[in-house]
Amino acid sequence: MKKALFVVTLIVLLSTLSFAGVTYKDGKVIFTFKAQANVVYLAGTFNNWSPIAWAMKLVDGVWTYEAELKPGTYQYKFVIDGKTWKEDPEAPAYVDDGFGGKNGIFTLTDDGKIVAPEGTTQAQTQQGGKKYILNEKRENTIFVDADGYVIIRYYNKDAKQPYIAGSFNNWKADDTPLYFIEDGWWEAVLELQPGVYEYKFVVDGNWIPDPNAFAYTDDGFGGLNAVIEVAREGGKLVVKAPATAVKEGKQEEAKVEEKKPVATVGKVTPGLSVVDGKVVFAVKKENAQEAYLAGSFNGWNPRAQKMQLIDGYWVTTLALQPGVHKYKFVFVIGGNDVWEEDPLAPAYEPDGFGGKNGVFKLVEKDGKLAIEGVESQAGGLPVKGKYEFTYSFKLDATKYLVFTGAPTTKLTLMFVPNSDITVSLVYGGATVDSALFNLKNDKLNVGFHYKTPWNLPAGTKAKDTGLVFSYKVMEKVSVIFGLGYTSNKLPMVGGLEYNCLTLVAASDYYATGYSVAARYDIEKPFGLSVEGLYNLANSSYYVAMSFSTEQFAIYGNFDGSKLFTEAKTEIFGFGLYANGTYTLGSTNYAVYGQISVDKYKFGIGYEKSSTTNAVSVVLGRFDNVYDVKLTIKNTNLQNIMGATTLTLSGVVSF
Fold this sequence. Notes:
The chain is 2% helix and 55% strand. By secondary structure, the chain is mostly beta strands. The strands form seven sheets. The protein has a 20-stranded antiparallel barrel. Strands 3, 4, 7, 8, 9, 10, 11 and 12 form an eight-stranded antiparallel sheet that branches. It is globular, with a radius of gyration of 29 Å.
């Protein structure tokens, strides 16, 4: 009986572990890897470490790739879901990857054998594959509750919203939040089947192994993963250390994996440069609360390399080895991660998701590092844009569905050859609907705008066509002067910008007569923008405010008669959005609410005026490339066929 129980337990343990291998058959090297993933790529020296070039196929639960390679020595890793780099747990041998982890390595001989190169670290061959180290200093913070859920508690009085990520949720950093209990204690509530799981806490961008875990194991990146085994004993779930966990003489303590400090630089050079043997990345993004650097050198981890704000530029430095590197910036704007390519990258290549990555080659010349461009692949021009379309229909009692007019389309193109020049054009059909040209250097900023407002306080109420100049007279102080366009007047605006405050006075620029406007912006520790406008001639006014954190964002404006507000947040993986409009002194108002999850959205709206009551339903799908929605609107529920319109609209970015 004991022998049978041991065999069953061993089978359960082995079924939870990843396995992989490298073999040679029929002239091809065969890579295999077992893991829970949506997609797995093979990256290595044979494909220039591309994280998306060689997609593996899922065959009978095993990810597989066959490659025709010439005899030689190769290094490799697996890329899970395009972002998590993982070494082969059954590689023939290992070498240091230069980032605190290791690469698998093998030599393909002339006679078709896979062997470990001389001088490399041999792979472990003991049963079970991974080595688990018991945590002898733990406190009892992990248990199974009365309903069969696994509870993992964590103490951190300074945490805002910690998450737990692990092999049970495909290491998604923001998929499983912890719940606040009291006095700095948080807990994760997990529904787990019997098996061995690895995990970490994600706290304000830091990946932290549980200090009270049952055991630890190498995470493959120079740190530790917490480990827990869920088992069924006596008909009930229990939690414990893995059966193969062992004691170790001097145990490494779990600690916060802090980001490497960003080296300070002198005068910021936009784009890429080399300073003291390190690559310096610098980019300007005025509305970002935080910025990070992700690329092929850090497994595309969106929180691995934090950037500092220096002289208006987000800056970070990295010590990189010569070779080809790919990267993007991750900006935190209103609590959302926005991935953008570097407008000053030496070259580009498609990122596989409709956008492009920056690419550069780091070479060593005369003992010094230098940056070179590589040949851009298709789509590498510094041009981006979007295409918008709208098709309108109405229900008809005899024809069922008929067009209500010609479709409307809009094409927006933005050309950014470098950080000093920006050109934007918006086409509506064959004509230019609006345009913007911006030329700047360290002190002078000149802009021409046509039928699009400039970024001034209360800019939406200002002239939409004209010229604007700003000149930096001293550190954090700039003077502003602008001219608008009308047929019989010369609208003017002028003012000062000091640090976070902008103050302007205008004549016929916002409305007839003299006006004053101001705006105050801050980016840390939260996003806040307050702006206002007052016209001296007719005493009209306009105020607006926005506030954002990593968890939510709100916005509102009021012009003396109409109030508009909107808010958005994300809770447990669901995106929530709502807005409303109300006209004072009337019965006119409109409200709209929307929920989105997993690239789908659903919304309901209601609009009331003196002449009509309208109900609308919105169904849509979106990702980082497109956003398409169908709006069904009815103005008389008693007349469905005669009072219902359907609008299909969307945006495609490129």
